[in-house]
Design a protein that fits this description.
Blueprint: H1 2-9, E1 14-16, E2 20-22, E3 25-27, E4 30-36, H2 42-54, E5 80-86, H3 89-107, E6 119-121, E7 128-133, E8 136-141, H4 154-177, E9 187-189, E10 195-197, E11 200-201, H5 208-232
Antiparallel strand pairs: 1-2, 2-3, 4-5, 6-7, 7-8, 9-10, 10-11
Helix pairs in contact: 1-5, 4-5
Length: about 230
């Protein structure tokens, strides 16, 4: 299929896991991953059962009749806990730099038909997006860190939104050829200019796990664009 062909020919390899990944770099903020507790061995189970009977707990885990831990001794389920996996901004910035490079490459690919209003300045982990407003253009950093910023992540989010607009414009170019084709995760803009992808906000906010899903959607859409150009433009 087209995606399989893309995996062989595209030097910027996009994969999916808990995070969206481009060339081994994770694009996202954080995910919560469950940690499973290993079930006891048969020998441990017998020893616990014997000790439970001796202690008057009916041989069940978790205290009297097994209820203090919230599960029955008859259950085969094992308690779980969660851990949070976070991605450092240095890795996120590098991943966004690869996204910028990929979109710029698609734009300048012969016969792609992609034309973007904004300007993509691909410079690795210090890439920028030139946002056009009328006849003027203002450049915003497509990278950030955890240091204090007077306006928070405002400029970073403007750059990210400007990049995603390029993805939406690429879809429009594709639909000029075939109106039945659409991105896997639709990109929409509100009357206030706030963009969503697959119904999730593009802008980085307090919900790191939600932003991680939005970035996975973004990489999926970009991989779809690469597959389309590989099949119909090359």
């Amino acid at each position: 299929g087209a995606l399989a062909e893309t995996d062989r020919t595209d030097p910027l390899h996009i994969t999916q896991g808990p995070f969206g990944i481009i060339n081994g770099l994770r694009l996202g903020s954080e995910v919560h991953v469950p940690l499973m507790t290993d079930p006891p061995s048969k020998a441990e189970s017998k020893r616990n059962n014997d000790e439970g009977i001796a202690n008057g707990t009916n041989g069940k885990p978790g205290g009297l009749l097994g209820y203090s831990l919230g599960f029955s001794g008859e259950s085969s389920q094992v308690p779980t806990t969660e851990t949070t996996i976070s991605v450092p901004w240095s890795e996120v910035n590098s991943a966004l730099g690869l996204v910028a490079l990929l979109m710029s490459t698609l734009q300048h690919k012969p016969h792609s038909g992609f034309h973007f209003k904004n300007e993509i300045v691909a410079m690795g982990s210090t890439s920028k997006i030139g946002v056009r407003r009328g006849d003027s253009i203002t450049y915003y950093d497509l990278f950030t860190d955890d240091s204090f910023h007077l306006f928070g992540k405002r400029n970073f989010n403007i750059a990210l939104t400007g990049l995603v607009r390029c993805v939406a414009e690429a879809e429009e170019s594709v639909q000029e050829r075939d109106r039945t084709i659409a991105l896997p995760h639709p990109i929409d803009a509100s009357s206030r200019g706030e963009m969503t992808i697959g119904g999730l906000p593009i802008a980085y906010g307090p919900d790191g796990e939600q932003w991680t899903r939005a970035m996975k959607y973004l990489l999926t859409d970009i991989k779809w664009l690469v597959a389309f150009t590989t099949k119909h433009v090359d």
